[in-house]
Amino acid sequence: MHQAKKLIVGAGPTGMLTAQALAAEGDEVIIVSRNPRPTLPGIHHVAVDATDVAALTKLAGGVSTIFNCAMPRYDRWPQEFPPIAAAVLRAAEVSGADLVTLSNVYGYGQVAGPMTESLPMAPQTVKGRVRATMWEDALASRARVTEVRASDYLGRDALSLYTLMTLPGVISGQPTHFLGDLDALHSWTYTRDVARTLISASRADGAWGRAWHAPSNDLSVRALSIRIAEIAAAPPPILTRLSTDEWQALAASDPIAREVIEMAYLYDLPCVLDSAATEQALGVKATPIDDVIRDALGR
């Protein structure tokens, strides 16, 4: 049992899974989100605005590690993410807690070939610049920091473009669609593997001052959909590719959907996360895709 005090900012699927895993190992866990939530065994929930530096700093007293799993509304990243990141970082600096941030691949920009953690930040989008700046600010701080980067999420209650747009139709046997190349290789990150990587990074002496990739499964949207249909005992999926122009037309009245357009390159081209360093140094490997799918289906 580690029996340390941990603070998690963000009570979404990854934040909650991280909290549950830490509590199961005997840690004292405080999880912070804007809205009240029921307190689970071993987890104390506090409703706090994550931009409130004073409140976060007070909660961070005696905490060994802060996990930043916050996720503002997709169309509010430039306005809401920087003050959240700044407040969490300041709380880590003042309290002396380590900071582990959950991030993604947006900061790399468009990459030819598999993405490794050694790639420089070269964002080409608004949301990519938000993520890159968060990491650069963390590295320039006095806190001990690390970052775990994931691709599109799969798993129970996971939220991603695929789970929101395509998965329901695949399960129900209805025609469905996805943005981009249906046959391009793509990394899919299991939310429980994200939690495992966050925790492992927080405990490894050599994890600090660099990023880590969450181990993921690599397969195309078409291959993933076929396997999901097989496990769900659903008919073979009927998939249609949406072009960027078609997506723009559908997103004309939806501010969140419009935000996907600048990230379309992630789906038009192969998007593969190389996690060899994580597997070797942190000992975390990707859960087999069939197990991920069963969890996503609630089986």
Automatic annotation (TrEMBL):
Taxonomically, what lineage is the organism?
Bacteria, Pseudomonadati, Pseudomonadota, Gammaproteobacteria, Lysobacterales
- Coiled coil ranges: none
Q: Which domain of life is it from?
A: Bacteria
What residue stretches are annotated with the NAD-dependent epimerase/dehydratase domain?
8-204
Gene3D superfamilies noted in UniProt:
NAD(P)-binding Rossmann-like Domain (3.40.50.720)
Give the species this sequence originates from: Dyella tabacisoli
Q: Which Pfam families match?
A: Epimerase
Q: What is this protein called?
A: NAD-dependent epimerase/dehydratase family protein
